[in-house]
Amino acid sequence: MDIYQKLALLSDSAKYDVSCSSSGAVSNFQAGMIGCNHQSGICHTFTEDGRCVSLLKVLLTNFCIYDCSYCINRVANDIKRAMFSPRELADLVINFYKRNYIEGLFLSSGIFESEDKTMSLLIKALEILRFEYRFNGYIHLKLIPGASSELIARACVLATRVSSNLELPSAKSLQLLAPQKTQKSLMLPLKEARDITLEKRAKPIPMSTQIIIGATPESDFDILRLSSNLYQKALLKRVYYSAYIPANDDKNLPSITTAPPTLREHRLYQADWLLRFYGFGYGEIVDKHQNLDLEFDPKTSWALAHMELFPIELNKASKEMLIRVPGIGIRSAHKIIRARRFGVLRFEDLKKLGISLKRAKYFIVINSRYHGGNITYPEEIKVALKQNGKKRYYQPSLFDSYTAAATGEL
Fold this sequence. Notes:
410 residues
C-alpha cells in the first residue's frame, strides 16, 4: 500500500472524531473552477480570535486491539488496515504544510499492540516534526488512555493541544459497549496532563474530549452534568458532542437505520455554551433526567419557563440578567451597559447598536414600555417565535452542530 492509499484510508477512519471541530464538506470538483473540498483528510478548527485553520486529520493506524461496539476500527471488523511509520507521517505533514494545504495536524490512532507502543510511535512522529523539521505549528494530539505517565508528559511538551475521548456519558454504557475501557481510565490522561502542565506552565495545556450522543439512553441532563463537572475540575477547555452515526450492526446499538440525532447535538452545543460563558448551571438548563427542548434553543426554553423574572427593564438590569435574555448575548450586553452611561436607552437606540430584537422584545421593557405587542403569555410567545424564526429553527447539518453558537448571540 503506497503513502496515498494509506492517507485515503487513515484520513477516512479519522472522520468520526469531531474533537477538533468540523470535518470538510463534500463537493464535486468541476473542470475550469477553483476550490475543492474533500470528505476526509482536511478538517477545520477555529482559533480564539475566530480564524479558521485547516488541519490534516488522520490516524497513525486503524489497527486496534479494542473491540468497542460503536467503532468502525474495532478489532472484530473485517476492514482494510494500514499504518504510517512516524517518518512517513512527519514527511506527509511537512510536505502538505510547505504546499500550503494545511496549517497544522490533528493526530489520533487505534491501539497498535499496546497503549505504550502506540503512544511512543505518536511521540516519535511529533519529535521528527518539532526537532528535525523545526515545525512550530499547531498540533492536536490524541492521548492514549493506559499509556505511562512519562509518555503523557512527553506528549504534552510536544503538542499544542491534547485530548482524550470519554466516548460515552456513563460507566454503565462503557461497560455495555466498550468493556475494555472504564471511565476512570479514559479520564486519567486528562488528569495527568492537567497536573503535569500545571507544574511547568502558568496555565494547563488546552484539553478537550468527545462524547457520543444517542448510542445509549443517558439524558441531556446526565450529559450536561458530566460536562459541567469536567469544566469545574479544570480538566477541559471544551467538550465536543458527536451525534451517533451507525458504523456497525450490533445488538447493543440503536437501529442502523436511525438517523443521527444532529438537532439534539446542536442543542447540546448551545447548552454547553451557556455552561461555559453565560453562568448557567446544568440543573437550570434542563430538568433532572430530561432532554433539551428540540423546538427552541436552551436559553429561550429557560426564559419561557421562568416568565416570573420577565420582562426586565433594560435600563436597569445587571449584566448577569441581561445575558439571560433570549437574543442578547455577552457582546450585546456590553454594548447596552456602555450606552447606558451616556443616557437613557430607547427602543430605537437598540436597533442602532445592532441588537436583534426578534426574540428579546418579548422579555424586556424599555422605560417601562413593552414592545412585544399584545403577546405576553408563554404559549403566545412560543407561537410568535416560531413564526418570526422559521429560518432559525431548522435541522442543522453536522457542520452547524460542530460550530453551534461559536460566533452568534444566544
